Amino acid sequence: MEKCTEKGIPGVKYSANEKIFNTEFNITFFQRKKDQCSLCTRFANSTDAEKSTLKDKYENHLQEKDLSRAAKKQDVAYSTDDTHNSTVACYDLQAVMPLPSGEVSHCFYKSKLNMINFTIFDVGSKTGFCYT
Ligand SMILES: [Zn+2]
How far is the CA of 127 from the centre of ligand 1 (A)? Predict the structure, then answer.
């Protein structure tokens, strides 16, 4: 979009590109795997009868998720305001990556090292730190 704007030509949003790629070409965008909590997974895999039993608990869970996101958004706004000396940081521990990695079967049997990537992202400065 920035390059199109610089050149004075009309651009399209990511969603338009995604739609064209997915419907007019045999190309898809990488879908990141999202971590699912046990309650969401349990609810998704339940029968209709089990869902009606879990309904209140699940709806409360979704409300808490929304409240959590709203609180994060509020914290980010607070930390990006220059009058406050605070930082909002998000962190994530990626899945263990066995090394060496490859499609050849003996790589699996020779895997002796597990690498872990711990990532911290400073939301205000948009700076990421990876610790392996
Ligand atoms: Zn959940």
Answer: 28
